[in-house]
């Protein structure tokens, strides 16, 4: 289970975990970053020419983490400055390439939230190069087109579209419910809403821990955040459609409007 950790939790463990900043390099260098953080910009681990969907490929991933001084048994905390959606994609990518989910953490909030109470720096960070070894996860949440298509007829499944309402109305999978990933985030704190609010939002869409949850968006970025949140909340039957609408439409999957 991947989890979401508070700024207070991280501030006490900065020397014990590997902190990854997925913002653009100019933000990391020019605006500042968390102490001891390394820069792995989002665009560097996002590729349409790698593995399935937008995954970068095993070799690219291994090279990125090796250069950042990260090993396969390290604890990682990722952050961005966009409520965690890009950092969540990093966390899910690590999970899909075999990193221990118990050692993967998303910072609750983002750089701006951290900067309100804690120190940032523009100092460069030198790390020893490691040899990161990619492996197959013991259990992968990835599902393919055929699995999602069959889930449309499964009464125990909830197909969750994490895009915004306008996108949803333009066309979505039959029977899908709309849960804009931003509904789970508090605009003021920039982190997750309180647990009781999250439960109420999820339950209103029939998204409960006893159901089979199938997530999709356009290119699997936004579902990464929702996946991390649901995992953090204790959901254990979550399916991650990496191909999302990009593949679904290319293969003439059924869509409905409204």
From TrEMBL:
A Gene Ontology molecular function term for this protein is: thiosulfate-cyanide sulfurtransferase activity
> Which SMART domains does the entry link to?
RHOD (SM00450)
Keyword annotations from UniProtKB, A to Z: Repeat, Transferase
SUPFAM superfamilies this protein is in? Rhodanese/Cell cycle control phosphatase
Name assigned to this protein: Sulfurtransferase
Alphabetized InterPro entries for the sequence: Rhodanese-like_dom, Rhodanese-like_dom_sf, Thiosulfate_sulfurtransferase, Thiosulphate_STrfase_CS
Cite the Rhodanese domain residue spans from the record.
Answer: 13-123, 153-257
């Amino acid at each position: 289970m991947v989890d979401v950790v508070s700024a207070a939790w991280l501030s006490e463990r900065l020397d014990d975990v590997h902190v990854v900043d997925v913002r653009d390099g100019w933000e990391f260098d020019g605006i500042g970053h968390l102490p001891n953080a390394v820069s792995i910009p989002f665009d560097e681990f996002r590729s349409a020419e790698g593995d399935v969907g937008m995954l970068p490929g095993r070799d690219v991933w291994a090279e990125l983490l090796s250069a950042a001084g990260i090993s396969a048994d390290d604890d990682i905390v990722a952050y961005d400055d966009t409520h965690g959606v890009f950092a969540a994609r990093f966390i899910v990518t690590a999970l899909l390439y075999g990193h221990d989910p118990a050692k993967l953490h998303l910072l609750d909030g983002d750089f701006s939230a951290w900067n309100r109470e804690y120190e940032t720096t523009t100092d460069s960070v030198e790390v020893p190069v490691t040899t990161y070894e990619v492996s197959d996860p013991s259990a992968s949440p990835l599902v393919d087109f055929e699995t999602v298509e069959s889930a449309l007829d499964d009464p125990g499944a909830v197909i969750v579209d994490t895009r915004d309402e306008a996108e949803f109305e333009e066309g979505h999978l039959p029977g899908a419910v709309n849960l804009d990933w931003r509904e789970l985030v508090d605009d003021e704190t920039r982190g997750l809403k309180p647990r009781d609010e999250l439960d109420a939002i999820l339950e209103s869409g029939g998204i409960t821990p006893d159901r089979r949850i199938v997530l999709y968006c356009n290119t699997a970025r936004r579902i990464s955040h929702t996946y991390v949140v649901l995992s953090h909340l204790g959901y254990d039957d979550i399916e991650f459609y990496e191909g999302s609408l990009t593949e679904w439409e290319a293969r003439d999957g059924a869509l409905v409007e409204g």
